[in-house]
C-alpha cells in the first residue's frame, strides 16, 4: 500500500479532536467504521457461537467506542477499548457516560507496545486498525509484525480474533496472521459487481489463536 496520513497518529488525534468537539456541540457520536452492519455482523457471530456474556473482549483501536456500547447493549459485561489517540478515548468516555455504560473500560494504549496488564482476553476485535497500521509511512511492514506479536500476547490460547478490513483480501490476511493463528470462518460482507466480476469491498474473518 502507498503510505498515507491515515497511518499516522497525528491524523487520528486531529480527527478525534474534531469529533470530540462535534459531540460536545451537537451530540453526534461520529463515524462508525464500516457502518452499522459491521457491528451487527460481529454481534451475530458472537451470539451464534454462544460466546459467554462474561467473556473478556478487547476492541483494538476503539475510536468512538460505539462498538463497545452495542456489545454492552447485547449483554456483554467484560469490555475493554484501547486507542493510541487520547482524543478518541476522551470521546468514547463521553459516549459511554451518555449511554450509561459504566462497565466499559477505556484506556489510552498503543497496541504495538501494549502494557503488561493488557493480557488474557477471550476475544479481540479489529475494525480498521490493522488497515491504518498498514498505511503508516514509517516501516508499515515492521509495524504489522509488531501487531501480530501483540495479538499473540494479549489473546488467550484458543481465543477468537475478529478482523474487518477494506485493504486486505482473505488470502492476504491469512498470510499476515499465519503464525500463531488458524482461520475459523469468513463472515459474509456486501458484494459489488464491476466489469462483470463480483467481489467484496470488505473482508471479515474470524481467527483462533493456536
From TrEMBL:
Catalytic activity, reaction form: L-lysyl-[protein] + 3 S-adenosyl-L-methionine = N(6),N(6),N(6)-trimethyl-L-lysyl-[protein] + 3 S-adenosyl-L-homocysteine + 3 H(+)
GO BP term, pick one: methylation
Record keyword S-adenosyl-L-methionine present: yes
Superkingdom, taxonomy of origin: Eukaryota
GO cellular component, one term: cytoplasm
CDD domains: AdoMet_MTases (cd02440)
GO molecular function: protein-lysine N-methyltransferase activity
First and last residue of the signal peptide: none
Residue ranges of every copy of the Methyltransferase domain listed in the record: 56-184
Pfam family, one: Methyltransf_31
Annotated InterPro entries: Efm4/METTL10 (IPR026635), Methyltranfer_dom (IPR025714), SAM-dependent_MTases_sf (IPR029063)
Residue ranges that the Swiss-Prot or TrEMBL entry lists as coiled coil: none
UniProtKB keywords: Cytoplasm, Methyltransferase, Nucleus, S-adenosyl-L-methionine, Transferase
Protein's recorded name: EFMT2 methyltransferase
Lineage of the organism: Eukaryota, Metazoa, Chordata, Craniata, Vertebrata
